Amino acid sequence: MSQNVDVNAPLRSDQARQTLAATTIARSLFQAQIKARSLSVSSKNLSVVAVRIGEDAAGLAVLASFYDELAKGTIRLANRIGELTADIARLAVRQWQLALVDQHLKKAMESMQRDRTQLIDEKRSTFVQDEKSMQVEFNALMKKLESMLDEMKQQTQVINVIAVNSKLEATRVTTSRGTLNSMAKDIESTTQVVIELIEAAQHSLYSFQSGRML
């Protein structure tokens, strides 16, 4: 008794992994985005306090303005990456749907006479070309995602360096030193969480890429 082999099963499995990777990355970046918004608010609060103190905290006020701009840049970048991961997930679903149609056509061909299968065979050839085009598009999107994640991490690491400098600057201020130091520490810890979330997204991407190479 012959056993039907589902030739499309590995392909559908790969597409499921594509969708899962995109979803996992999007989730990590959504959380990073929330933290980046919190970072932007914290930097504004730090700037307000530093301005109230005056010249003694002028250096801290400048650093706080850098925080705010970088945090806003991180939020914008997270938005763009979120849109990119959504495109990747949609593309994976389209590939899966195409694979299912191709599978049904293949089964139909098996039950038809050879002279009647030409049209279906031509359609399947078109599907193969479409799938190849989608895979090229998918690979391009994943490269772009990797580059944007690297950019986002570098940007956040710059914020982290500024956070360390802010802590040092806060120790030099005589007025409200405790408050300023606490605020600077809060920014540093929030920035570290953002970095960890970005690294989690990168890990998901690298795990997916490693799995494809096995």
The arrangement of helices and strands along the chain is HHHH
pLDDT < 50 runs, ≥5 residues: 1-11
What is the overall silhouette? rod-shaped
Number of DSSP helices? 4
Report the biggest beta sheet as strand number plus sense, adding barrel if it closes.
none
- Strands, total number: 0
Averaged pLDDT = 79
Q: Helices and strands: which structural class?
A: mainly alpha
Task: Report the portion of residues in β strands.
Answer: under 5%
**Helix coverage percent of residues?**
over 70%
- Radius of gyration from the alpha-carbon trace, in angstroms: 26 Å
The rounded distance between the terminal residues' Cα atoms is 33 Å
> How many separate domains make up the residues?
1
Protein name: Methyl-accepting chemotaxis protein
Summarize the structure.
By secondary structure, this protein is mainly α. The chain has 4 helices and no strands. This is Methyl-accepting chemotaxis protein.
Structure notes:
It comes from Reinekea blandensis MED297. The chain has helices at residues 9-53, 58-110, 118-172, 177-213. Mean pLDDT is 79; it is low at 1-11. The chain is built from four helices and no strands. Helix 1 packs antiparallel against helix 2 (58-110) and helix 1 packs antiparallel against helix 4. With 214 residues, the chain is mainly alpha-helical.
Task: Summarize the SSE layout with pairings.
Layout: H1 9-53, H2 58-110, H3 118-172, H4 177-213
Keywords:
214 residues; mainly alpha; 4 helices; 0% strand; rod-shaped; disordered N terminus; Methyl-accepting chemotaxis protein
